[in-house]
Task: structure prediction
Amino acid sequence: MNDNAPPVSIAYAALRCRCPRCGKGKLYHNLLDIAARCNRCGLEFKAREQGDGPAFFGILIVGALTAIFAAIVEIKIAPPFWVHAMIWIPFIIVGSLLSLRTLKAALIAVQYQLRGEDFGG
Ligand SMILES: [Zn+2]
Result:
């Protein structure tokens, strides 16, 4: 553990999905599961469960983007329905996974910066 490490920005920790304290340890041990603790500095992550917060914001963002882009494609091109399905179903799946990972990491980074002393490790 290194308490003298320079602070990691919330944007860096969120976009790279890294530890909010050291900026080097991985936040996830697989696609969407938060690791129990940082593999570099030992900061505990599991105690920082955010519930449905990241999913709520992810649904808002991905849903709004999908609706806007689908409306633009429909107005400009007016393709058959199957083309919409081929475009927007993968867009929703990939967008949901990416936004959920980023938003979970962002909320953990915000919690760490606001209440860092509550984190274990
Ligand atoms: Zn760390």
